[in-house]
Amino acid sequence: MRVTPNLFLILTATALLAANWAVRHSQGGASQLGKADAGAASNPTAGGPAKQPSGASPAPAAENARGENGAPPRFNWASVEVSDYKEYAQRLKAVGFPPELVRDIVIADMNKLYEARERALELNQVPYDAPMSQRQTHNISPEDWQRVKDLRDLRMEKQMALESILGEYVPREILHTPISRNYEAYDYAISQLPPDKREPVQDAQETEIYVEGYNKTHIGDHDAELASFKQTREERDQAMLKVLTPEEFERYEMFTEPAGTELARRVIGMQPTDEEFQAMYRIAYKDWIDTGGVYGRWRAMPVPQEQIEAADREMDQQLSQALGPERFVDYQMAINETGQQMRNFAARFELPRNVMVEAFQLQIALDGSGRSQSSQGQGTVPAQSSDVQSRLQQLLGAELWQNWQVGRLLRANLDP
């Protein structure tokens, strides 16, 4: 049976309907309610008791076309309620509900119908930012994997029902397994695709999510499991490239691969343009692979430390060339804690950009010198470090230097 829409939707819908009536009445006549199509498709879900027989014309939304003292008439839900969801949506539109609100009402209604069945199949999820020891869950039973499949089938059934009612694409939540992943990134990336390409891409992605997770819990040998992962990803990519252009595919990868999502998190303070971020992602992904990454798995292949350091140096050189000197400094400050502190410090005391940049570079040199002394066990400050510190102190002045020294050591305590 259908569920009465929640209070917020009811209040919003009633207000909109009243406003619509007032506008039409002021133009010289009471509005006429359109008749629903008597041949509408039957309800795709189990029907409940109807307020009116399917195919009947909607009853007037109020007892009188004009209320007392010219007040808008009270809306009566019985005037539009029928057991056929398609006709229900049509009647809501006929009495003046905006299409967006009709969509929200129907989706909320259908979500309520499926809620108990979905909850019965849901498994506990591991947060994306959980400790690494908790992310790789290998003790998932065959029954749990079957519940994952059953939940996906149920949500696809709900999605198809909604699309049949509304006559348009309706998104569904990406398949989740008990193994930690950035599932929100998949939902976002799919939402950025053209509507006609979302379903095949989601199908390919969910197949990869399920097969990779299942194999991870059933293949004990690391090399064999990694080989199966590569094959699964290749099959996913081939399926996606049948519907996506190369540009769309790269953008999808940029939004979902850890090389892209982690880069986006690190450079928040830089606020890169779309063009800058795309160039940075290509460079960062090459570094990801050169340092042992396999698709979305960080350092899955053993790589000598010298190769990692060389790859990181190459990445910095390429980023500097791609961004230019000024924007590369912004990148360095965004990914570096000292840079973030210096940017906040400069904003607080309204430092010019050239002073902020020079102070940041001097502080980085000073920090590097301090780490070198610590590793060599030196107890005295060498002349070079003393000179750098003097230059930084002179650049900022005595008062700002004191504030900088104190502020760097402050740590917020958020414990209750």
SSE inventory with pairings:
Layout: H1 7-26, H2 85-94, H3 99-121, H4 132-135, H5 142-166, H6 183-191, H7 195-218, H8 222-241, H9 246-256, H10 258-266, H11 274-290, H12 305-323, H13 325-335, H14 337-349, H15 353-376, H16 383-396, H17 398-409
Structural descriptors:
416 residues; single chain; mainly alpha; 17 helices
Number of domain modules? 4
Estimated radius of gyration: 30 Å
Span of the ends, CA to CA: 46 Å
> Structural class of the secondary elements?
mainly alpha
As residue ranges, the low-confidence spans are 19-43, 45-51, 59-65
* Percent of residues in helices: 55-70%
The number of helical elements comes to 17
The fraction of residues in strands falls at: under 5%
Q: What shape does the CA trace take? A: globular
Mean pLDDT over the full residue set? 83
Biggest sheet record: none
Number of strands: 0
**Strand and helix order:** HHHHHHHHHHHHHHHHH
